[in-house]
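User: quick one, fold this
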Amino acid sequence: MKNIRYQKDRAGCKDVFKAFLVKNARYEGELEIPVIKGIKSVPNKVISFIDAMKNSTKDFNQWVHFYIDDFHFIKIWNRPKDFIERLKKFNGVILPDFSVYRDMPLVMQYFNIYRSRAIGNYLQSNGIKVIVNIRYGDERTCECACLGAPHKSIIAIGTNGTVKNVIDRSYLDNGFDYIVNELEPKTIVVYGSITKHIREVCDIKNIRIINFHSEQYERYRGN
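Assistant:
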């Protein structure tokens, strides 16, 4: 049975753990990862968090993504309230892609999965549409990566940096099998290249793929 509970307020305590991010959240699994509600909306186009925060950006008819280096968006974890009003202008948000490297201590990998879901709960509670980003390292993180994610809905993955190397690609493909079997998604947003294996699995299971590439790739292709 899934372990789901509700966050309770702690009167008089200074919120050094950012408990406000998961206020009224439900949790799933022994690690108590915040649960994110599924949605039916799909991204029409995407923009990186860096570009979305620029005052020069006036096109809000797109979704914000975090498939960039962590240091570019760690501030949304440190100061999430500062970005709510700006993010509300866009169609929605694909949740932060905190790094889950295989050589990181496992507890840090779990923590980065938690952080993405916690921010997702906070954004949803403020009326922002969100899509869960599924990030995993090796087989140890696959189960945790699925906790709190909606079933038979839409999810997102990023493949940049995981396709060219044979070993990295094998972890990507193997983890993808686990996620698809566990979550049974109807639609998957893929940011980056799509491996042959991922495309074959989606074809067999009739999963819709929505593919976006990096801004650098699009600029290169346009030249």
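User: anything notable?
Assistant: Residues 106-125 form the longest helix (20 residues).
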